[in-house]
Amino acid sequence: MIVCIAEKPSVARDIAEVLGAHTRKEGYIEGNGYQVTWTFGHLCTLKEPHEYTPKWKSWSLGSLPMIPPRFGIKLIGHDPGIERQFHIIEGLMQNADEIINCGDAGQEGELIQRWVMQKAGARCPVKRLWISSLTEEAIREGFSKLKDQSDFQSLYEAGLSRAIGDWLLGMNATRLYTIKYGQNKQVLSIGRVQTPTLALIVNRQLEIANFQPKQYWELKTNYRNTTFSALIRKSDEEIAAEEEKNGGKKKIDNPGIDPIANREEGEALVERIKDLPFIVTSVGKKDGKEYAPRLFDLTSLQVECNKKFAYSADETLKLIQSLYEKKVATYPRVDTTFLSDDIYPKCPGILKGLRDYEVLTAPLNGSTLPKSKKVFDNSKVTDHHAIIPTGVYAQNLTDMERRVYDLIARRFIAVFYPDCKISTTTVMGEVDKIEFKVTGKQILEPGWRVVFAKDVKDSAEEKEDEDENVLPAFVKGESGPHIPDLNEKWTQPPRPFTEATLLRAMETAGKLVDNDELRDALKENGIGRPSTRAAIIETLFKRNYIRKERKNLIATPTGVELVQLIHEELLKSAELTGIWEKKLREIEKKTYDARQFLEELKQMVSEVVMSVLSDNTNRRITIQDAVTAKADEKAKKEPKKRERKAASAPKEKKAKPETKGIENAKAETLSVPASAPAPVSSPVNNPDSFVGQPCPACGKGTIIKGKTAYGCSEWRNGCTYRKNFE
C-alpha cells in the first residue's frame, strides 16, 4: 500500500480524488492502492527544555545557556485530536510499502512531514510530490514526476537548522532577559527574527521623536503658466555618493545656485531677477518605455494589499492561501517574481480561463504571446515561480478574496501587453545666470496601463505626479516676463512604518531600496521568510510590543524599552540577522554546512549569555500595558480588523496545531514560574523608568526620551510638555 501524507484534510481530499481513492476511513481516505492521510500543519515540534533535563524546568540564570547535546521532537501540546490523528498516521506508515510526502512544497512543508515520519518510525522508501498549484492537471503531472526524498535533504537541513536556531536563541535569550531585567509580570520574549523586526520599528520611532526640522527655501518662477524650479548645487557628499554609484565612470555635473540659507538671501534673489526676462536655454525631448509591473511574490502581494485595501500581512497570507486551496491561484509562499520557461506554453490556456477578464484578454487572443526576460527567467526561479492565476474559473470567492485575486489576474494579463510608451520633455531656462528647470511626461501609447485603467497609483507613481503633465510648446531662445516666488519649506521626519513598508524593510534587512533589481540582490540577506514575516508581525502585536494607529505601526513603551535594554547587536541587528538568513539559504543550496551554522549559533548564544550575566548596571524594564486609543480604534476604516489584546500575564497560550513558524510556536509556550525573582525598578538607579508614562500635560501621549530632554509622543499634534534631563 502507498501512503500519501498531505498538510491539510482539504488538500488530502483533492489528491485522493485524483488518485481514485474514494473510501473514507477515520483519519484517511483509501482506494486504488493508496491511503491518503493528513496532518494539521505542525503535528510535531522540538522538545521543551525540561524534557532534556529536569533542572531546566525552573527558570534560573545558573542553568543558562541551555544547549542540548542532541535535539528531539515531540507531539505538539496535549490535544486528543492531534494524538489520535498521529497514531492513525503512525499505523499507516509502519505498514506502508512506500510513502509519498505531499506536504506544501517549501522548506517548512518539508520539515513538518519529515518530523511526522521520524516520529512515526517510517522505514520504507519515500517519494516527494512537488507541485505549484492544486488543480487536477498539476496534481496528475506531479504524480507522474515524483522525486526521491533524498533530492530534498538540503531543504530539510535548512528547515531543521532554522528551527534549532530559533529554539537556541529564543529559549535562552527569553529566559535570560526575563529573569535579569523583567519584573515577573510578563515574559520578555526575544526571537531571532522578532527582535530585529521590533528594533526596526523602535529605531524609526526614535528617529521621528528626535527629529529636528530644519527650514529651507525654494526659488521658483512662473513663465507661461508653467512653474520652473531653480537648480540647487549638490553638496560634496551628494556628488561623491553619485560618483560611487556609477563606479566613478562619469563625472557628475553640478550646476545651480548654493542652497538658500535664509529668507533674506532668497528675497534678494527674487529682487535680482523679477524685472529681468526669462530665457529658454534648451528644450529636450526623450521617448522612452515603462515596463509592466512585475508579477507578485508573497511579500509584494502583501505590500500591495496593505497599501490598497489596508489588509494586514497575516490577512493577505490567509486570503492567498485560500485562493490556492480553491485552485484559482498558484503556491503563495514564494520569494520570486519570475516564471520558469516551462510555464510559457501554458499561458494562453491560463488567459483563456480568466472569463471575467475577457475584455482585457481578447486583444491577446490569436497572437503569439511575448516572452520577456523580465517575466520568464529560469535563473531567477528555484522551487516555485511567481504567484499567478491557474486558469481555473474563479467563483464562490469572498469580497476580500476577489480583491486579492483581481490584483493577481491583472498583473498576469499586463505582462503580455505592449510596453507603455512615454515622452519626457525637459525645459531649461535662465534669468541672470540663475538656471531653472521643469520636466513633463506625456503618455504616447498606454500599453499595459489599460489593464489597470483608473487604478490607485502606488507611492512611486505619486512621486511622479508632478512630472505627469503635458508642457506647452517651448522654443529654445524665446524669452518673456515671469513671476518669481520664494517658498518656505521644512525638512520632514521619516514616516512611521506601515505593514507594507515594514515588510519591505524585512525583505532588505532594513535598507531603504526602491529599485527592483537592487531589492532582488538584497533578498538573500532579508530577515525571516516570506511565509513567516506575517506571523512575526502578529507576534509583536500579541506580545504587546507594537500597536496600530490607523495604518502606522507604533512601538509600545514596553517594546521601546526592550530594544533600548538590549545592548547585544547580535540580538537586534537586522543586518546581522540577514547574514544568518543568507547562511540558511546557502544550506538549502548546499553551499554551506548546517553543522557549522549551528556551532556558530551555539557560540553566539553562549556569548550573549555571558555578556548579559556580566551586566551590573541594575537596568530594569517597565512592564506597562499599551495606552489604548479607543478613539483611533473607532476611527479605523480598515476591513475586518481584529482587536489586539495586550498580554499582561506571564503565562501565554500554547501554540495551536496549525500554527506555523518554530520561533512563534516555541516562544508561545514559555512562562515564568512563581519562584522566579521579581526585581524592583528604582527610579534613582533607572531614570529612564520615566519613559512610557502617560504625559502629565495632555494625557494622550506617553513620555519619550530625546537628546537633551524628555518630551511627549504627541509633540507633533501640539503638546508642548518638556522636562530637561537632571
What is the count of β-strands? 21
**Order of strands, widest sheet:** 2-3-4-1-7-8-9
Mean pLDDT: 85
Class from secondary-structure proportions = alpha+beta
Shape: globular
SSE topology:
Elements: E1 2-6, H1 9-19, E2 23-25, E3 28-31, E4 34-38, E5 44-46, E6 73-75, H2 80-94, E7 98-102, H3 107-120, E8 126-128, H4 136-144, E9 147-148, H5 153-181, H6 194-209, E10 215-223, E11 226-230, H7 236-245, H8 263-273, E12 278-290, H9 298-309, H10 313-325, H11 347-353, H12 358-361, H13 399-414, E13 420-431, E14 434-445, H14 449-452, H15 459-463, E15 479-480, E16 483-490, H16 499-507, H17 516-522, H18 530-542, E17 546-549, E18 552-555, H19 557-565, H20 569-572, H21 574-588, H22 594-613, H23 630-635, H24 662-667, E19 703-705, E20 709-712, E21 722-724
Helix pairs in contact: 2-3, 3-5, 5-21, 5-22, 9-10, 9-16, 10-13, 10-18, 16-18
Provide a descriptive summary of the structure in words.
- The protein is of the alpha+beta class and 726 residues long.
- It is 37% helix and 15% strand.
- It is built from 24 helices and 21 strands.
- Strands 2-3-4-1-7-8-9 form a seven-stranded mixed sheet, with helices on both faces. The chain has a seven-stranded antiparallel sheet with strand order 15-12-13-14-11-10-16, covered by helices on one side. A three-stranded antiparallel sheet has the order 19-20-21, with no helix packed on it.
- Helix 10 (313-325) packs across helix 13 (399-414) and helix 10 (313-325) crosses helix 18.
- The chain is globular, with a radius of gyration of 29 Å.
- Residues 456-467 and 626-687 have low confidence and may be disordered.
